[in-house]
Design brief:
Layout lengths: L4 H9 L3 H6 L4 H5 L9 H25 L15 H5 L3 H20 L9 E4 L3 E4 H23 L3
Antiparallel strand pairs: 1-2
Length: about 150
Amino acid sequence: MKISNSITCRLKLQHETICEIIFDLDEQQLLKEIRPDKWSIHENIAHLARYQLVFMERINKILLTGNPSFGRYKAEDDPEFEGWRTRPTNDLIKQINADREDILRLIEGISETELNKTGTHPVYGNLNIMKWTEFFLLHEAHHLLTIFQLANYK
């Protein structure tokens, strides 16, 4: 088993969609809460930035311990998330770009044997590293769709 071209391409490029969606928005639009009790564009970006680190921590734990169990990540339960929410959007995007390089190096540096190592998700069960990476990318894509919807809400 090796990392698929689809995963590699999305790891390299998918996050760049953020800038394409928000390029013409001002700070007020980024911070505006369109729906009560739902995140703004900025908060979605802060979540994506923070979750990249969570993802890397999980992959490293899988590599070191083999089949660890993880709870569902909820930003509201993460004491570090509030600090991410207070950072300027441009800083978050720079951090996403820098951390994505680290994620890419991490994933591309994993041997074919290590790709079979698993970690347990509370809903989806045992996932190997390739499936964890797919889950990470699909989670990110969900938030990219949300950002698109908020940016174009009329």
